[in-house]
Design goal:
It comes from Aurantiacibacter atlanticus. Pfam families: Metallophos. By secondary structure, the protein is an alpha/beta fold. It has 11 helices and 12 strands. The chain binds manganese (II) ion.
Length: 321
């Protein structure tokens, strides 16, 4: 079982990813995936017929391996929607939490099973590990059962926009220091981006959990709205500096679409939300139009439509006056 593989794998975390034998890790991970693919899921898959078809789907912050993950809603989403390309934008599996407390119900296997099945049916799946599943970053460039692992990606929309796709924890250190950053500019920005890595490597060596931006935003920063707004600005600015038209990220568990300006160009910021609270997905239609779906609303709409389709009691005949 995949969670077991992870708990074991993360168990030897005294060593850095580089020090461990990557090919042995890859073999163990592939064996765990093959095991999941070979079993029937505990929640049977609905027929792929009649699924909504999108050009692209982005989801992130699923946090498999935690009680917070809304696995059944995600199973419903995966059984209702298909796409040519699917991006898994990080924090799909919560390795940090699995290491502390093992939690892996059968529905979490079912989700991995569905992703593997989807890749086999021909969906291009790109997995960009986040900070909670950073143990997969060591496999960047490899292909797992048809799922490509990347550190970041560029996505070209049907109408010709180029979007940078990344998880978004890359900006945590910038956010930590955003109060003084406003006064010192670019050099400090790049320095801090480099520091972030060392901060989290040190925290890991001390067995501290990864510093969580979303938790900080929710619990420690008085003005969370301002904090999230600033994060969106920082990410959009990085996209502007890369010369792309926009960015898709996750990480802060807040689905959003905003437009920014950078060097007199429009930069679009998209966040695909999470499957812990919001249960959101970002989708691209065939013409390049993009939309954030809030899946609980979609389920409610479907159920209301289903009710309307049910045969009603025959109308009472009223005699003509
Ligand atoms: Mn994250």
């Amino acid at each position: 079982m995949f969670g077991g593989y992870l708990a074991g794998e993360i168990g030897n975390s005294g060593l850095s990813a580089n020090e461990r034998d990557m090919s042995a890790d890859k073999g163990a991970a592939l064996a765990a995936l093959a095991d999941i693919a070979a079993r029937a899921p505990s929640v049977p898959e609905r027929s792929p017929q009649g699924r909504r078809k999108y050009r692209t789907v982005w989801i992130s912050d699923v946090h498999l391996g935690t009680k917070g993950c809304n696995a059944n809603l995600l199973i419903d989403f995966l059984d209702s929607v298909d796409s040519e390309t699917m991006y898994l934008v990080g924090d799909i599996i919560d390795g940090w939490r699995l290491k502390k407390k093992f939690y892996w119900p059968s529905e979490h296997n079912d989700i991995v099973w569905r992703l593997l099945k989807r890749a086999r049916r021909g969906t291009r799946i790109v997995y960009i590990p986040g900070n909670h599943d950073e143990m997969f970053r060591q496999f960047t460039g490899l292909n797992f059962g048809g799922i490509e692992i990347r550190r970041a990606a560029f996505h070209d929309t049907a109408d010709g926009r180029r979007l940078m796709v990344l998880h978004g924890d890359e900006f945590d250190a910038v956010m930590l220091s955003h109060r003084w950053l406003a006064f010192v500019g670019d050099a400090a920005y790049h320095l801090v981006m480099g520091l972030n890595r060392w901060v989290n490597l040190t925290r890991r060596a001390l067995d501290l959990p990864y510093w969580s931006l979303s938790k900080m935003a929710k619990h420690k920063v008085k003005n969370a709205v301002e904090f999230i707004g600033k994060y969106e600005e920082v990410v959009a600015r990085a996209a502007g500096e890369r010369g792309v038209d926009g960015v898709v990220c996750g990480h802060i568990h807040t689905a959003e679409h905003r437009m920014f300006e950078h060097d007199n160009r429009h930069i679009e910021y998209w966040n695909d939300g999470d499957w812990v609270e919001g249960c959101n997905a970002l989708v691209e239609h065939a013409d390049g139009r993009m939309e954030i779906l809030h899946w609980p609303d979609e389920v409610a709409r479907r159920e209301a439509a289903h009710e309307a389709d049910q045969p009603k009691a025959p109308p009472v005949m009223v005699e003509a006056a």
